[in-house]
């Protein structure tokens, strides 16, 4: 892709006008060929058309530019030669300027017409800090998904990165998604630590002190969707407390974000749910901490997107300043 620039205009000496470049091409061809027949061949026109062009230039100038010589074809008149030389000097003087302008225009066009860089596609288990940072980073498309769904999208190639968590600081044998950390084709890095716990109304009207109390006091619970890391954590806590999930009122009531869970509790439609300290504070709910977990980002090994490093750096920096978050042991991207 390149632009074509040339000197254009008209030659007007008071008797009419002809295109400037056409007049120079005609006079230069006649000076070189010294015959109208040769001029016609050089210009790619008929003999008759060449004579027509000579006549048009002469009409514009008001005097002859070509002269027939007996037995020697046609030549330029002194006026025609002087005009050719003047036009040649003009074209030569502007060549450098036009060439430089063409180079600048080509550069601008290359930027304007260049294909847009591929956007970084992320499927992230819901987190308010991540959502806020993603909105400030250009070139990133974020979809909210449960941890299991996010990793499935990464495995299928639907996204470039998957954010996930499972209620622990580090993987251990038998923990959810442990196999992800062992895959050679997947690179997993920690983004931050965050605190999760039970969220309920100020004053703790039901006197909830842990997961066992939810079932014992028939508190209305709001759960997360299947495959969500928070739901996996809650199910593990239930097992550790000896509570059957079906004994928890509302266990099958599912929401897709921490904020949706908090909003239902704040409205009075439910009594308790599990979420982050940051979301509890945002909805003015009381918070009973249950532990800290690491939030991880998984990407394909060797397939680093230009926007990834900046996004991860911004997330880690913001985690130092948000309530309920802390830096995780970091790894380079």
From TrEMBL:
Domain HTH lysR-type positions: 24-81
Picking any one GO molecular function of the record gives: DNA-binding transcription factor activity
The residues covered by the PBP domain are 140-312
Q: Name one Pfam family in it.
A: PBP_like
Q: Write down the Gene3D superfamilies for this protein, in alphabetical order.
A: Winged helix-like DNA-binding domain superfamily/Winged helix DNA-binding domain
Superkingdom, according to UniProt?
Answer: Bacteria
Cited CDD domains: PBP2_LTTR_substrate
Q: Which SUPFAM superfamilies match?
A: Periplasmic binding protein-like II (SSF53850), Winged helix' DNA-binding domain (SSF46785)
For this entry, the protein name equals Molybdenum-binding protein
What InterPro entries does this protein's entry cite?
LysR_HTH_N, PBP_domain, WH-like_DNA-bd_sf, WH_DNA-bd_sf
Q: Which organism is it from?
A: Methylobacterium oxalidis
């Amino acid at each position: 892709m390149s632009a074509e620039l040339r000197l254009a205009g008209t030659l007007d000496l008071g008797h009419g006008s002809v295109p400037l470049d056409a007049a120079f091409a005609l006079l230069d061809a006649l000076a070189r060929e010294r015959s109208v027949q040769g001029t016609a061949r050089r210009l790619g026109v008929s003999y008759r058309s060449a004579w027509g062009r000579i006549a048009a230039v002469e009409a514009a100038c008001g005097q002859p530019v070509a002269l027939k010589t007996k037995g020697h074809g046609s030549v330029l008149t002194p006026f025609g030669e002087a005009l050719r030389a003047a036009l040649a000097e003009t074209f030569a003087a502007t060549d450098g300027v036009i060439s430089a302008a063409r180079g600048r225009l080509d550069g601008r066009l290359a930027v304007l017409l260049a294909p847009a860089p591929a956007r970084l596609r992320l499927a992230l288990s819901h987190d308010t800090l991540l959502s806020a940072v993603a909105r400030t980073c250009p070139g990133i498309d974020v979809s909210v998904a449960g941890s299991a769904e996010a990793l499935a999208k990464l495995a299928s190639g639907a996204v470039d990165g998957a954010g996930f968590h499972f209620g622990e600081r580090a993987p251990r044998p038998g923990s959810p998604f442990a196999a992800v950390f062992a895959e050679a084709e997947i690179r997993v890095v920690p983004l931050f630590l965050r605190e999760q716990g039970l969220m309920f109304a100020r004053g703790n009207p039901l006197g909830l002190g842990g997961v066992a109390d939810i079932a014992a006091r028939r508190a209305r619970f709001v759960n997360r969707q299947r495959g969500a890391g928070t739901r996996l954590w809650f199910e593990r806590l239930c097992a550790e407390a000896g509570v059957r999930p079906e004994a928890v009122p509302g266990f099958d009531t599912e929401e897709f974000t921490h904020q949706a869970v908090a909003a239902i509790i704040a409205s009075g439609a439910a009594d308790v749910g599990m979420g982050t300290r940051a979301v509890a504070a945002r909805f003015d709910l009381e918070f009973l901490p249950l532990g800290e977990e690491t939030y991880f980002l998984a990407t394909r090994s060797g397939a680093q997107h230009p926007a990834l490093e900046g996004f991860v750096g911004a997330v880690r920096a913001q985690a130092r300043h948000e309530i309920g978050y802390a830096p995780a042991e970091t790894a380079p991207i």
